[in-house]
Structure formats: C-alpha cells, structure tokens
Amino acid sequence: MYVGTLSFDLLLGDVHSLKEKRSLVRPIVAELQRKYAVSAAEVDHQDLHRRALIGLAAVAGDTAHLTDVLDRCERLVAARPEVELLSVRRRLHGDDD
Predict the structure, then answer these.
(1) For residue 96, is pLDDT > 80?
(2) Which of 13, 25, 52, 55 would give a disulfide with 43, using CB separation of 3.0 to 4.6 Å?
(3) Are 78 and 70 in contact (CB under 8 A)?
(4) What is the pLDDT of residues 36-92, one digit of tens each?
(5) How many angstroms separate the CA atoms of 22 and 15, rounded?
(6) From CA 71, how far away is CA 53, in angstroms rounded?
(7) Which pairs from 84-87 meet CB under 8 Å and 24+ separation?
(8) Whole-angstrom distance between the N-terminal and C-terminal Cα of the chain?
(9) With respect to CATH, is domain 2-93 assigned 3.30.70.1120?
C-alpha cells in the first residue's frame, strides 16, 4: 500500500474577502475529490483572503498509479486561471516508512 500527499500553496487573484476566497477554493477542492477520488481540504491560511493551502491524500496499491493520480491533480490545480500556484510539495509513503 502506498499513500501520496500533495500540498498546493496558492495565491488567489482579485479576492477582497474570505467569502470570495471560499467561492474560489471550494470548487477546486470539490473537483479534486470528484474527479480523482482523493481526500482534499483547505489546510492552512484560512484567515488570509489571498492565500490558500490545499492538501490532498490518495491511497493506491502501486506507485505508478499513485504518481499518475498525483500528476493529474497537480495539472488540474495549475490549469486554474483564477489562482497562481506558488509551490507544490509531494510525498510518497510506502509500507516500509
């Protein structure tokens, strides 16, 4: 069994309130969950209206499938025009960890 995690540090565009921030972040999290069956949530910067940190985790039986899912998730977030992807942190954990 392998577990993969990603964290996306995002800079949000023309956002002036936490309510506007939620209207951008929630659809991204929901799309990741729906398309790729991963667990995803906003995990930090909840009090900042122009920054967001989205974390996700996925479990798979082999690293090739897990890497493919994580790559697809990263491409989905990077392609969103309303956010700027500042950094991505990826970790893979296996049975030996």
Answers:
(1) no
(2) 55
(3) no
(4) 999 999 998 778 889 999 999 999 999 999 999 999 999 999 999 989 999 999 999
(5) 10
(6) 18
(7) 84/10, 84/11, 84/12, 84/13, 85/8, 85/9, 85/10, 86/9, 86/10, 86/11, 87/8, 87/9
(8) 11
(9) yes
| Residue 9, Cβ density class (10 Å: 0-12 exposed, 13-18 middle, ≥19 buried) | middle
Q: How far apart are CA 71 and CA 93, in angstroms?
A: 16
State residue 49's pLDDT score. 85
pTM comes to: 0.87
- For the chain, the structural domain boundaries read 2-93
